[in-house]
Write a structure and sequence with these properties.
The complex is a heterotrimer of chains A (about 270), B (about 250) and C (about 575). Chain A has about 270 residues and is an alpha+beta fold. Chain A is built from six helices and ten strands; from the N terminus they run ααααββαββββββββα. Chain B contains five helices and two strands. In chain B, strands 1-2 form a two-stranded antiparallel sheet. Chain B starts with about 40 loop residues before the first helix and ends with a helix. Chain C has helices at about 15-20, 25-55, 65-85, 90-105, 110-130, 160-190, 205-235, 260-290, 300-310, 330-355, 365-380, 385-390, 390-395, 400-430, 435-460, 480-510, and strands at about 60, 65, 245, 250. The longest helix of chain C is centred in the middle third of the chain and has 35 residues, at about 260-290. The radius of gyration of chain C is 24 Å and the shape is globular. The two termini of chain C are about 40 Å apart. Classes of the chains: A alpha+beta (about 270), B mainly alpha (about 250), C mainly alpha (about 575). The interface between A and C is large, with 103 and 118 residues.
């Protein structure tokens, strides 16, 4: 029975580890400036924690077999010991160093992504989630987002209606509202997250970006796309029956294309 | 394989029998084991009941700690005004009816009465335990009906709180009028419900007296209810100060 | 509640089995409630797994599963499992039965309260299940019930009466749990037999005791959150809801904070997960010691670890909220503390390995589940430090990686604790042995099956598969994981089917199992000195006196390889 346990535990451990090492199902290719650091930290965590995992499981299986009761004939009784204080202190200290150290090592990435404000000159995009679609708003040449009023919301009138854009506010005149988030490559994008009804979450795996959109708040975050292309986004906070189909696209294009696209959108409004 | 034969002892017959204090329904009801008049002694029962009360007061405290933290957070919370895209604070303090201060006085006086009732019943219980032949009737106690007075004052307090609510409503402050008014109703209401529980416990103790139940049991109920009552009085003072000064 | 002389055991079916004041009967009542709940919860999860792989499949008697129904299934699955299984069986079930006996007491401190706590919990379960049958059905907001989704009746089907019943059920559960905690704490502090010092208590008792303290401090906060939510829903207050519109209609709220709900909920929710796992950890320590014939390695460290886990458990709730919009510096502080709480868990794991080391291991079924517990706890625990680091949580939050983590710890390891407890204490509770062949079959099928279900979820999580999605047909990047999902569903079928082996074994052995001796496992703690099953007052009129610690196995010079706690004769090491 000890041997069976050893085999089962070791097989599970090795099989599980294989799929991680082989990255059979893994993060998508990183397309933002943050991805390299985050992915590196994933690797470090997997190596360190994975090492602990493998050692612990292998030891468990090994002990289960090695210290099995071999029957009445076996001479040696179990080893009577209540423990070893020195060993306790040593492995406690090592664990603290490993766990806390690993986390502290990630602080600079966390600060850069979430604590530090966006750089001046970042491209502002307001991202609004509502049951069950995403709307993206650009402030236009005046650089200001126009006022929105909940009383004016009417999704049947398209983007501006969905957001409840107040046309009496002069700053609204040049706001561009789209269903696809188009952004220029290699520029920091300042995302302002909002919601009208319940909590949603803006998740773009390729950008290693996730942030909840909370009604009553306007949450500022940022990321810097470094690759052009189309990248899927999906809602990552349960928001009701349409949660599973609240997805969209982030389209990263060159600066010229972005300017051209934005100008075209402005022109359409006239 | 039972192997305790030589080492188990009979020196403490059937201690720790479980509390036999009657009401409040939350405590007691020891369902014993073997035959023999073997309730644990009065001191053990009293200690156990008091420990139980101390433990029970912890979640009550946590409930109000939680409400307090919600209150503090909500007070300071800015919310997005989508008109201006600015964060604004929208806390408007509620003016408390002066009646609440009168009610507070009533409750504090009732606490004094409660303490006197508690000591009165305790003395009677100790006397009865020392002289086991004496019946557990109210005759052993002093004449002043402190317990009855406490119950009356407690009910007066609750009535006063109800009147204060009506005054608030009359001046236009309902539970949903402002965030501040929501908390006023919430905190006073939650306190009142808990105090009602205390009143019920005292009523049960009074009932026990009328039914000539054991004075020891009754004194445990009154003791526990007494400490509970004092806690409720202190909690009320805290709530009032919070609502009045941390506006 | 009368106070005539202490009377003998109650007669009559109602007093004996329905409104019993005997902690042993109440413990069994809790256990069977949890058993009904776990099969209900498992069935719901099976429906979920079927729907994920075949979204258009029609279930016999149920019909199609619409997206909102899927969400109701997952909400109720989580709520039933967390509250009515994991907070009920280990604590209310086995804790009620064995805590008094293991400390040498004849009952809990407040038997009437104990009886009321069970029936309150039972009522809570009925109210919860009722949500399925009302207009709109069960709520769809997840067991975490985030506002405003849970606060706005118009936000989705099931968010009407169904959500009210859900909240009410949880509030009732809180009351029942608090009553239970009161009893556990008072009993442990005030009713230990002579010689049963705190440091001679079995680790099961320590675990139940600290779990009760966690419950005492946490459930009041959950109750407060539920009250505020009901007020937002029905009294027009705005604790949790800011200005919102649903389907273009203003809801009338303003100024509330959705994050306030999350803080209150998780302040309860995090200690709750330790409530779910601590009793199993205590039992694992117990079983590894008994079946290795060795003292637990580092008893004192194990006690401190339980206390540390309990204490730190109240300081880490923010790690559920890294992406919520909370202050990122505060978030990082929570994450450091969270890594900290991994330390006592690691210590316990090292000590479990240390207990096996140089032992003389007997592989009875309780031991298999204890070893399985260690393996599952390691894998579930190791994924914790990934989620605890906010930079990694940016990607992993809300993915199946999280599902893998908490299911392996709560949904499998903790359940293994319940299985282990059943196999271990069944002989004492019912006077018969369970069938070992069936037990071993059940173990291997469940152990391998559970790994087949939850190990792949780490992979799909790394691939970005999001949770609480009723189907994966819309999002492109999720299509590649359909094959894994199928594999998981098949594994779920097999694993759930295997549980019927256990169910059969349980009931069959009650009537037909081989008769059990008083101490079939040759263990040292006090429950093994009682008659089998124990009489009404546990020790037959005798008060035990304790001389030894609970783990005196293979003591050099002792006549047998175990020394009962009540055995004064053998010169055991003093604690």
């Amino acid at each position: 029975m000890g041997l069976v346990l050893l085999v089962v535990i070791w097989l599970i451990t090795l099989l599980g580890s294989y799929f991680i090492i082989a990255k059979t199902w893994w993060l998508p290719v990183g397309a933002s400036a943050a991805a390299a650091g985050i992915d590196h930290h994933f690797t470090v965590s997997y190596i360190l924690m994975g090492g602990v995992f493998i050692l612990a499981q292998l030891a468990l299986g090994w002990f289960a077999w090695k210290y099995r009761d071999r029957g009445a004939g076996a001479a040696e009784p179990a080893h009577y010991s209540h423990g070893n204080t020195t060993l306790e202190v040593v492995w406690t200290a090592l664990t603290i160093v490993l766990f806390v150290g690993l986390n502290l090592a990630s602080h600079s990435i966390w600060a850069a992504e979430r604590i530090d404000p966006p750089q001046p000159g970042a491209v502002p995009v307001e991202v609004t989630g509502m049951q069950f679609a995403w709307y993206f708003r650009y402030p236009g040449p005046d650089g200001k987002f126009g006022a929105t009023r909940p009383e004016l919301e009417d999704a049947s009138l398209g983007g501006a209606g969905a957001l409840g854009l107040d046309s009496n506010d002069p700053a609204s005149k040049d706001d561009v509202i789209t269903g696809v988030m188009e952004v220029p490559v290699n520029r920091e994008i300042e995302v302002i997250l909002r919601s009208h009804d319940v909590i949603h979450s803006f998740f773009v795996p390729a950008m290693r970006f996730k942030q909840d959109a909370v009604p009553g708040l306007a949450i500022h975050m940022h990321f810097t796309p470094i690759q052009t292309g189309e990248f899927e986004l999906a809602c990552a906070e349960l928001c009701g029956l349409g949660h599973y189909k609240m997805h969209g696209i982030v389209k990263v294009v060159s600066q010229e294309e972005f300017d051209k696209w934005l100008a075209e959108r402005e022109a359409e409004k006239q | 394989m039972a192997s305790f034969g030589t080492t188990a002892t009979l020196d403490e017959p059937l201690v720790s029998r479980g509390d036999k204090g009657g009401a409040p329904p939350s405590f007691g009801g020891g369902d014993g084991g073997r035959s023999g008049p073997s309730l644990p002694d009065y001191q053990t029962r009293l200690r156990r009941a008091r420990l139980g009360l101390l433990v029970a007061l912890t979640p009550v405290l946590m409930l109000f700690v939680s409400f307090t933290s919600a209150y503090v957070v909500r007070q300071g919370l800015p919310t997005l005004d989508s008109r201006t895209n600015q964060l604004v604070r929208d806390w408007i303090p509620t003016k408390l009816p002066a009646l609440l201060w009168v009610n507070t006085l009533v409750l504090l006086v009732s606490s004094v009465g409660m303490e006197l009732a508690r000591r009165q019943t305790k003395l009677a219980a100790v006397a009865a335990t020392a002289k086991p032949g004496v019946g557990g009737s109210a005759n052993v106690e002093g004449k002043t009906p402190w317990l009855g007075m406490t119950i009356a004052l407690g009910l007066l307090f609750l009535y006063g709180q109800w009147m204060a609510w009506k005054q608030l409503a009359a001046s236009g402050f309902y539970v949903s009028t402002t965030p501040s008014s929501s908390f006023v109703y919430l905190l006073t209401g939650a306190h009142a419900i808990h105090l009602m529980g205390g009143v019920i416990a005292l009523l049960v103790a009074g009932l026990f007296a009328l039914l000539h139940r054991s004075v020891a049991t009754r004194s445990i109920v009154v003791d526990v209810a007494g400490w509970y009552w004092h806690f409720m009085a202190a909690l009320w003072v805290y709530i009032l100060l919070l609502l009045e000064f941390a506006k | 509640m009368t106070e005539t002389h202490a009377h003998a055991a109650p007669q009559g079916f109602i007093r004996k089995y329905v409104f019993s004041l005997d902690h042993k009967v109440i413990g069994l009542q809790y256990y069977f409630l949890a058993l009904a709940a776990v099969f209900t919860g498992m069935f719901l999860s099976l429906l979920m797994r079927i729907h994920l792989v075949w979204p258009n499949a029609s279930i016999p008697f149920f019909g199609d599963i619409k997206p909102e129904q899927y969400l109701s299934l997952l909400t109720m699955h989580g709520t039933i499992m967390v509250f009515f299984v994991l907070t009920t069986a280990p604590q209310g079930g086995f804790g009620n039965y064995f805590l008094p006996i293991q400390i040498g007491a004849p009952d809990m401190a407040f038997p009437v309260l104990n009886m009321l706590s069970f029936w309150t919990t039972f009522l809570g379960f009925i109210v919860l299940i009722a949500a399925f049958f009302v207009t709109g059905g069960a709520p769809l907001h997840g067991w975490t019930g985030y506002a405003p989704l849970s606060a706005l009746q118009s936000a989705g089907p099931g968010e009407g009466l169904g959500a009210d019943l859900w909240i009410t059920s949880i509030a009732i559960f809180c009351i029942g749990a608090l009553m239970g905690a009161l009893n556990f704490i008072t009993t442990t502090l005030d009713m230990r037999a002579k010689g049963m010092s705190l440091m001679r208590m079995p680790l099961t008792v320590w675990a139940w005791f600290v779990t009760a303290i966690l419950g005492l401090l946490a459930f009041g906060v959950l109750l407060s959150a539920g009250i505020l939510l009901l007020m937002d829903r029905h009294l027009g207050t705005s604790f949790f809801v800011p200005v919102t519109t649903v389907n273009g209609v203003l809801t009338g709220h303003k100024g509330g904070s959705p994050l306030l709900w999350q803080h209150l909920f998780w302040f309860f929710g995090h200690p709750e997960v330790y409530i779910a796992i601590l009793p199993a950890m205590g039992l694992c320590s117990q079983l590894l010691s008994v079946f290795s014939r060795k003292p637990i390695f580092g008893y004192k460290a194990m006690v401190y670890a339980i206390l540390a886990i309990g204490f730190l458990g109240f300081m880490v709730w923010g790690h559920h909220m890294f992406m919520s919009g909370m202050n990122p510096t505060v978030a990082f502080s929570f994450s450091v503390l969270t890594m900290g709480i991994g330390v006592p868990s690691a210590i316990k794991t090292f000590n479990w390995l240390g207990t096996l080391w140089r032992g003389k291991i007997r592989f009875s079924s309780p031991m298999l589940f204890a070893v399985g517990f260690v393996s599952l706890f390691v894998v579930g625990g190791i994924s914790g430090p990934f989620l605890a680091q906010p930079v990694l949580d940016i990607y992993l939050h809300e993915t199946f990686f999280v599902i893998a983590h908490f299911h392996l710890i709560m949904g499998v390891a903790s359940i293994f604790g319940i299985f282990a407890a059943t196999y271990y204490w069944f002989p004492k509770m019912f006077g018969r042995m369970m069938n070992e062949t069936l037990a071993k079959t059940h173990f291997f099928l469940t152990f391998i099956g559970a790994y087949c279900i939850f190990m792949p979820m780490h992979f799909t999580g790394m691939g970005g598969l999001l949770r609480r999605y009723s189907q994966y047909t819309e999002v492109q990047w999720m299509h590649s994981m359909a094959g894994v999902n199928k594999f998981i569903t098949f594994a779920a079928f097999v694993t759930i089917a295997s549980q019927f082996i256990f169910l059969f074994n349980l009931f069959w052995s009650m009537f037909k199992g081989e008769k059990a001796a008083d101490n079939p496992w040759e263990a040292t703690t006090l429950e093994w000195i009682t008659a089998t099953p124990p009489p009404h007052d546990n020790f037959g009129g005798i008060t035990p006196v304790v001389y030894n610690g609970p783990y005196e196995y293979s003591v050099p010079g002792a006549p047998k390889d175990f020394v009962m706690q009540t055995d004064a004769a053998v010169g055991a090491k003093k604690h």
